[in-house]
Write a structure and sequence with these properties.
The complex is a heterodimer of chains A (460) and B (266). Chain A is an all-alpha fold and 460 residues long. Chain A is built from 17 helices and two strands. In chain B, helix 7 links the parallel strand 8 and strand 9. The chains are: A mainly alpha (460), B alpha/beta (266). The structure holds adenosine-5'-triphosphate (ATP) and magnesium ion.
């Protein structure tokens, strides 16, 4: 039985329990029996109990059985492969899996065919058992739930519990995924630090992983350098420029939209601003590279400055425009959420509109505004495409906005584009950079939270 | 200037009026919310506006310090004067006007700032003080007058929103007093308060009467009877009757007033 048909049958069983339970209660009610909850809740209770435990078992089973087969199949490997281990074993496993999938390259070895047949056998047994267990479990749980139905049983409260478990499960998945990602990045970072000392990485002012291959081949030419400072300087420089553009403009337009604009203007301008957020970053990238950067270069040179043709300023300005909607749209929402009664109070004391906005509305909206800015900053720090296209890839340690610089994210891209050997320091350095980036954004968030706590003005 | 064809029963005029409203109409878009209202508000008196819900009490109250300007669709016709000066004249600046005619709202609405900053807000924006100590004095005397000083003097730096509902409303009154208004408008100031807090606010109104002119909108006829000198009864946008509070409650002249205060509707 395939997974799909198993799921369909399971759903049908659950629906059946739903309708039967509901119907039972309906009939009993029409005979004058009084129930704690509405019939629908009894149906939901029986249906959910039939469905969810069975689905959980189904998912776990499907994950575990493949793992088991992969370890059992090792018994078929010839001793020399087992002895060699590593990549040999991986190749062997791939060969067997091809057989299972029905793909044959040439004339496979006898042990591969045997292993494949065995695997197919296990899979068939497993599927049969799985179907029986899952469907049996659904029926048993459904019956138990059905037996619980009587006038005192509180199905409504039961369903409420189920819903809260469901919500907990969903947030657990989100949290576990995040933890998983962070851990895997951390492990690779530790491996990187076994190849390159952490102090060299953190305090190094030169970044030059390109020589890695040459160095190992012993052909000379240069030494690979893994100092992260140039990229972090670049990230900070470009993000700062972007924030300097986006926060005043975004906040001012939010204030205009929320406090000054007529409802009609607001309802047209706000969606227009939000379109800015929907433009793909690649478009911003070539806008920055082809329009803004040359313009800045021309302007700078006419003033007698030396400007790189790809400059931090160009990337930062365009990135700033890109994140304006993050600031303005969210700030507009929080400003709107400030109670009208506070504005009335300020007007009633004789404040002008801008005094009311500056001294009453904005302070009350501050936590939300800071949240909007943090979101925008994270967006700027994580932005890659514009930087790759407009700021260049030169890892200069520079705070001059007219220089070409590079950022952490764009270096990660350059490192990982194309074929890579996984063991090399060059590849692993991408993970180290990611770790540092995560630490940086976490730090920013923490810092911003402290600010919010300190200046928070609670209303109502 | 005195208009003889007034539909209102009773004495709309007083000897030395602080504010005068003549033939005032208010519209929300097409809706005619106040219909040809003429009334005087006397010096150092408490006047209560009563009437069934939706009759236009708040609307009329808000015309007295031009709070209606903040509502786009609202239009005011007729003349309203403060100390003989038309407050809707083009030359009048609403900002100082609202400092002279302060307002207290139905729901306590302290700023989410410290108690001190709540009171100091008005004096600061109007530049009433030259030094910190002067500001401290204003804050103290406003809280004193609002009968709140003893309760909050040790926690001036804590948020005003952390006070109880009744304390918050007295804070709002103190905030209005701090800019030394001549007239204080109160729109159902006790409707969100319990009886004890209400009694405190009423006591406060009694005390403030010696220095300020107070206009209070209320749904509680007992409250109107307790705190006000004169009472005005509104009905569907019309001002039906104005008179001394005692007379209105014991011997109303108009049938509608009588129906309302005897609880036949409202
Ligand atoms: N902002 C507004 N826009 C449109 N119509 C309004 C507005 N405010 C009030 N109105 C209308 O004007 C009329 C008078 O309203 P107002 O708020 O002055 O009544 P009220 O006497 O204060 O009532 P309540 O005792 O319930 O507070 C009502 O019919 C109301 O629907
Ligand atoms: Mg009202």
């Amino acid at each position: 039985m395939t997974l799909t048909s198993l799921l369909i049958i399971l759903t049908v069983i659950s629906l059946a329990f739903y309708f039967i339970a509901k119907r039972t209660v309906l009939i009993a009610r029409s005979n004058g029996q009084v129930f704690h909850s509405l019939p629908n809740y009894y149906g939901l209770w029986a249906g959910s109990l039939a469905f969810f435990p069975a689905v959980v078992v189904l998912i776990l089973w499907s994950i575990i059985d493949i793992q088991l087969f992969q370890s059992w199949v090792r018994d078929f490997y010839p001793p020399e492969i087992l002895a060699a281990g590593g990549s040999q074993a991986i190749v062997a496993l791939a060969k067997v899996e091809n057989i299972v999938a029905g793909i044959r390259f040439g004339e496979p070895e006898a042990w591969v065919l045997q292993a494949g047949d065995a695997w197919i056998g296990w899979a068939a047994t497993s599927t049969m058992l799985k179907s029986a267990v899952v469907l049996g479990l659904a029926t048993v749980c459904g019956l138990i739930a059905y037996r619980q139905i009587d006038s005192d049983f509180r199905a409504r409260n039961g369903v409420e519990k189920l819903i809260s478990y469901g919500l907990i499960a969903a947030s657990t998945i989100a949290i576990l995924t995040t933890i998983g990602i962070v851990l895997s990045v951390l492990f690779e970072t530790i491996r990187f630090f076994q190849l390159v000392p952490p102090t060299d990485f953190i305090f190094g002012t030169e970044w030059n992983p390109q020589f890695e291959g040459a160095e190992r081949a012993g052909s000379g030419g240069g030494e690979a350098k893994y100092g992260m400072l140039p990229m972090f300087a670049g990230t900070l420089l470009i993000s700062s420029i972007a924030i300097i553009v986006a926060v005043p403009v975004g906040l001012a337009s939010a204030v205009y939209l929320a406090e000054y604009a007529s409802p009609k203007v607001r309802s047209t301008v706000k969606p227009l601003l939000e379109i800015l957020a929907g433009v793909p970053t690649v478009v911003y990238g070539f806008f920055a590279a082809l329009t803004v950067a040359p313009a800045i270069k021309g302007l700078g040179e006419s003033l007698g400055l030396t400007v790189a043709s790809e400059s931090a300023l160009a990337a930062g300005l365009v990135m700033g425009v890109m994140i304006i909607p993050f600031v303005s749209s969210l700030s507009d929402d929080v400003i709107n959420a400030v109670p009208q009664s506070l504005r009335d109070a300020a007007y009633g004391l004789g404040s002008t509109k801008s005094e009311t906005t500056r001294q009453v509305v904005l302070p009350a909206a501050l936590p939300g505004i800071v949240a909007a800015v943090i979101l925008a900053v994270s967006r700027a720090v994580g932005e890659t495409m514009i930087v790759v296209m407009a700021a260049g890839l030169a890892a200069n340690l520079s705070f001059n906005p007219l220089d070409a610089v590079t950022t952490v994210t764009s270096q990660i891209v350059t490192i990982l584009v194309g074929d890579q050997e996984f063991e090399s320091a060059k590849t692993l350095s991408a993970f180290a950079l990611s770790t540092m980036l995560i630490i940086l954004t976490l730090g920013l968030n923490f810092f911003a939270l402290q600010i919010v706590k300190k200046y928070r003005e609670q209303y109502d | 200037m005195e208009n003889s064809n007034i539909k209102t029963t009773g004495n709309v005029f007083v000897e030395n009026p602080r504010m005068t409203a003549r033939n005032v109409d208010v519209y929300y878009g097409d809706k005619h919310a106040i219909n040809d209202v003429t009334i005087d508000i006397g010096e150092q008196e408490v006047i209560a506006f009563i009437g069934p819900s939706g009759c236009g009490k708040s609307t009329f109250l808000r015309t007295l310090n031009r709070m209606n300007d903040t509502i786009d669709i609202c239009r005011v016709e007729g003349t309203i004067a403060l100390d003989g000066q038309d407050i809707y004249a083009p030359s009048v600046d609403v900002v100082p006007l609202r400092a002279r005619v302060g307002m207290v709202f139905q729901k306590p609405n302290p700023f989410p700032k410290s108690i001190y900053d709540n009171i100091a807000y008005g004096p600061r924006i109007h530049g009433l003080t030259k030094s910190k100590s002067e500001l401290d004095d204003i804050v103290e005397s406003a809280l004193e007058k609002a009968g709140l000083w003893n309760e909050v003097k040790d926690r001036l730096d804590q948020p005003g929103t952390g006070l109880s509902g009744g304390q918050q409303q007295r804070l709002c009154i103190a905030r209005a007093i701090a800019v030394s208004p001549e007239v204080i408008l109160m729109d159902e100031p006790c409707s969100a308060l319990d009886p004890i807090a209400t009694a405190k606010v009423e006591e406060l109104i009694e005390e403030l009467k010696s220095q300020y002119t107070i206009v209070i909108v209320t749904h509680s006829m007992q409250q109107a009877a307790r705190v006000s000198d004169r009472t005005a009864y509104f009905h569907l946008g019309d001002l039906i009757e104005v008179g001394n509070t005692e007379q209105i409650f014991t011997n109303p002249s108009h049938q509608l007033t009588q129906d309302y205060i005897t609880g036949r509707f409202g």
